Recover the amino acids of this structure.
């Protein structure tokens, strides 16, 4: 192969202990195509991405391996040559455009810096021409006024496109994109993805696209490599990976991904990936794999070819695991519950600026109602008003037929306990200085329950959220994200609520963990007859979980009804656009 | 459906103090601190003479039993040195505690309530901060008297804004975190939220600040004594002693060196 990117046997170590972060990574990306590197957080995706730039984070070193850009091996370059290579031969698009652009410099200046640093173009005029060319290619205005703007004057999507322009400015042959659309709204994401694909094709760039989002991968890339615990465990063409995954982990990953098309129930998987230094000699996935045998534990499987450019590292290929079949979601219980919460004409704002206008929705017992919208649509504000965390609102909220006060401290105790709020970020919602048990039982202490009763209840809720009783004495920093979110759910459950407000509870979690948390929530909803208000920007997730959905845009509910009705047959223009720009695995395979 | 989750491998790192004690710099620092503390605390019990006893001619050396001779009045320098630390240490301990207690409370209140209350507290702090600490303390002490309580009060109050500002800054980001909202949604009292949810999460900056304020209080109180504002001007006090004997430094350098 004359151009493109080739990674051979890459191994990256922690310097101090010599443990591998990633090992035996082999990838090949032909020029003009995009390879998606998929995995959960901590699987080593970003480490591979940075290694392509010849860079390793502090305390980490590239221990062995070769990286070829076309015919040239670049890992053996000295520091100065690597510096010249970065930005010119290979460039990097990081996750957060807001922090990768210098807020004090105009975007035109920043684009020019890249060109000047690599002596691209002979004159100022030539560079100016190139800057305008780049801006046009990422579909941004090319006039001088626009180039004189500061990053904060652009939207998130525009910022990310400026970063893309910078990355492509010197016509590199390899580009590494590290979750470039995480944090962007779906419609913006769609635009950025299209730009990436077109630029890669037009310039013959080999692109490595790092993400945890399978749906994005299915729409964008040509080939997929799945990483788990620092190893690539399966790779192949998009169609092969999603239609015919052979590694048990890939199967679980696909089964856990919610899709806006189709009607499959998402399924989670317990446990977590072994961290560097704790990885077994045998297959890294064996501890969580239902097919694992002694043979799997004794030796890490070598790569097996399954088809054309499709390979996996598993010795049990062909043995289908039973519990990954994806059953359809049965929905028979529409509207059986009576109305628990009635929100009528709710308008809310911050310091006089209205962000929610005239919202009216109902939440029924034993059902999940979802509020969906892009960031800034006002969905969280609605939830905060209901939860008593925001008091600048007008309108009426009835809970069990009674009007509720604005601030939670003014509400009677049964209302306070009856409405429980679960927060987005499990890393922020538990007090790090308190044990998990202390955090969970606090509502009971407020009610003045006896110590023995509190202990009994604590064990019960821990069991309900599938955590061992020993977790009560742990501190939040000893728990993973998914476990923390379970603790947050346990804290909500202990006061025997009628309504759970789940504010983006899964957005900080990996897809397998997300699936198991959603699974838990829907079990609780069924078994305890809970009503759930599910706030999210994730439409596919809504499809697999919610009974009713209200779509919000600019503070208003633009469409409201049964989930299937709205997602399969949207009436509103905004809803239609939202649904069509949401990436879908099923849609892109067909 | 949900399998039990296995116990995680991570172990909470404990024994931070033990770890710190293994460092050489901690050992050196601790030794110096302990020696000074020992002088101040144990000193009064082992002093051979009382602090106001005239044992010989002023400014003489070579007196049996008096290690550093006598001062400008003929009192035993060694005994006065041993005795003179305690009052400063106690006064600054009191002043720092007062400053911390008021500063923490006001800082936390400002961070949680925001708006007008924050504005009011902060502007009062600004006014106090616009005076140098020693000047403010001097003002109070010279207007009334240099009683121990007024010294503690004046130094403590002038310490308050500095503590308050640091605590407010640290608490501002903590009060925005979700566990504080979670407590509010439960209807916890604001007092509980402040002292049980927020305070434990600002202990890091708090400890550093407490340390700094303590040393500054010692310096301020010793300076006050040096300027003549000690609770008992005849009693031994490291600050007073420097001032009293500075005039005779040529003939009796021992005392100054001691201090």
């Amino acid at each position: 192969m004359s151009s493109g990117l080739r990674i051979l046997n890459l191994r990256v170590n922690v310097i101090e202990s010599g443990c591998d972060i990633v090992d035996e990574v082999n990838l090949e990306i032909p020029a003009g195509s995009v390879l998606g590197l998929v995995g959960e957080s901590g699987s080593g995706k970003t480490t591979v991405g940075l290694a392509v730039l010849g860079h390793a984070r502090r305390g980490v070193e590239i221990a062995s391996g070769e990286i070829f850009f076309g015919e040239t091996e670049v890992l053996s370059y000295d520091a100065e040559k690597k510096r010249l290579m970065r930005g010119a031969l290979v460039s990097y698009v990081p996750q957060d455009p807001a922090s990768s652009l210098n807020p004090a410099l105009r975007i035109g200046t920043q684009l020019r810096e890249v060109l000047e640093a690599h002596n691209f173009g002979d004159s100022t005029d030539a560079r100016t021409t190139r800057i305008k060319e780049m801006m046009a290619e990422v579909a941004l205005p090319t006039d001088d006024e626009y180039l004189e703007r500061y990053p904060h004057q652009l939207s998130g999507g525009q910022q990310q496109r400026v970063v893309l322009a910078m990355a492509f400015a010197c016509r590199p042959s390899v580009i590494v994109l590290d979750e470039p659309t995480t944090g962007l709204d779906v419609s913006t994401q769609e635009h950025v993805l299209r730009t990436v694909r077109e630029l890669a094709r037009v310039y013959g760039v080999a692109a490595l696209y790092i993400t945890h989002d399978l749906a994005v991968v299915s729409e964008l890339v040509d080939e997929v490599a799945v990483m788990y615990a620092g190893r690539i465990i399966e790779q192949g063409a998009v169609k092969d990976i999603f239609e015919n995954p052979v590694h048990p982990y890939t199967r679980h990953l696909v089964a856990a991904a919610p899709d806006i098309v189709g009607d499959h129930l998402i399924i989670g998987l317990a446990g977590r990936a072994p961290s560097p230094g704790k990885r077994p000699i045998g297959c890294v996935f064996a501890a969580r794999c239902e097919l694992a045998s002694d043979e799997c534990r004794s030796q890490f499987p070598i790569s097996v070819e399954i088809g054309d450019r499709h390979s996996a590292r598993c010795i049990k290929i062909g043995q289908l695991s039973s519990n990954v079949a994806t059953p359809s979601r049965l929905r028979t219980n529409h509207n059986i519950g009576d109305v628990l919460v009635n929100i009528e004409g709710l308008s809310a704002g911050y310091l006089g600026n209205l962000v929610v206008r005239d919202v009216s929705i109902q939440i029924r017992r034993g059902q999940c109602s979802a509020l969906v919208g892009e960031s800034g649509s006002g969905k969280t504000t609605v939830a905060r008003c209901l939860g008593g965390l925001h008091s600048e609102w007008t309108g009426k909220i009835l809970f069990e037929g009674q009007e509720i006060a604005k601030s939670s401290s003014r509400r009677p105790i049964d209302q306070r306990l009856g409405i429980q709020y679960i927060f987005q970020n499990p890393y922020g919602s538990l007090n790090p200085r308190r044990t998990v048990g202390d955090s969970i039982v606090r509502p009971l202490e407020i009610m003045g329950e006896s110590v023995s009763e509190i202990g009994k209840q604590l064990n019960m809720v821990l069991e309900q959220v599938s955590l061992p009783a020993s977790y009560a004495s742990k501190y939040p920093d000893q728990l993973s994200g998914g476990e923390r979110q379970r603790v947050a759910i346990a804290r909500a459950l202990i006061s025997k609520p009628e309504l759970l407000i789940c504010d983006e509870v899964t957005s900080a979690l990996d897809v397998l963990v997300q699936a198991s948390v959603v699974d838990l929530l829907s079990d609780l909803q069924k078994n305890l007859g809970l009503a759930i208000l599910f706030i999210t920007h994730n439409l596919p997730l809504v499809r697999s979980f919610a009974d009713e959905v209200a779509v919000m845009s600019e503070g208003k509910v633009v469409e409201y009804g049964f989930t299937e009705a709205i997602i399969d047959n949207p009436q509103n223009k905004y809803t239609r656009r939202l649904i069509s720009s949401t990436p879908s695995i099923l849609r892109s395979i067909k | 459906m949900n399998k039990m989750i296995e116990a995680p491998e991570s172990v909470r790192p404990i024994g931070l103090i033990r770890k710190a004690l293994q460092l050489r710099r901690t050992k050196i620092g601790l030794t110096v601190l302990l020696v000074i503390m020992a002088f101040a605390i144990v000193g009064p019990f082992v002093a051979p003479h009382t602090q106001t006893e005239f044992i010989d001619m002023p400014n003489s050396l070579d007196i049996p039993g008096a290690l550093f001779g006598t001062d400008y009045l003929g009192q035993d320098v060694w005994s006065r040195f041993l005795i003179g630390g305690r009052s400063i240490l106690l006064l600054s301990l009191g002043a720092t505690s007062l400053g911390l207690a008021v500063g923490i409370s006001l800082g936390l209140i400002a961070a949680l309530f925001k708006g007008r209350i924050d504005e009011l507290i902060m502007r009062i702090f600004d006014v106090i901060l616009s005076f140098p600490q020693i000047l403010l303390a001097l003002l109070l002490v010279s207007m009334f008297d240099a009683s121990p309580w007024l010294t503690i009060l004046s130094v403590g109050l002038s310490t308050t804004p500095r503590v308050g500002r640091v605590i407010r800054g640290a608490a501002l980001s903590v009060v925005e975190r979700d566990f504080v909202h979670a407590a509010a949604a439960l209807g916890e009292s604001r007092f509980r939220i402040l002292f049980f949810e927020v305070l434990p999460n600002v202990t890091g900056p708090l400890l550093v600040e407490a340390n700094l304020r303590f040393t500054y209080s010692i310096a301020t109180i010793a300076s006050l004594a040096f300027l003549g504002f000690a609770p008992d001007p005849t009693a031994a006090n490291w600050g007073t002693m420097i001032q009293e004997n500075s005039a005779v430094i040529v003939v009796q350098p021992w005392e100054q060196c001691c201090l």
The first helix of chain A runs from residue 45 to 52. The domain at 5-221 of chain A is CATH 3.40.50.300 (Rossmann fold).
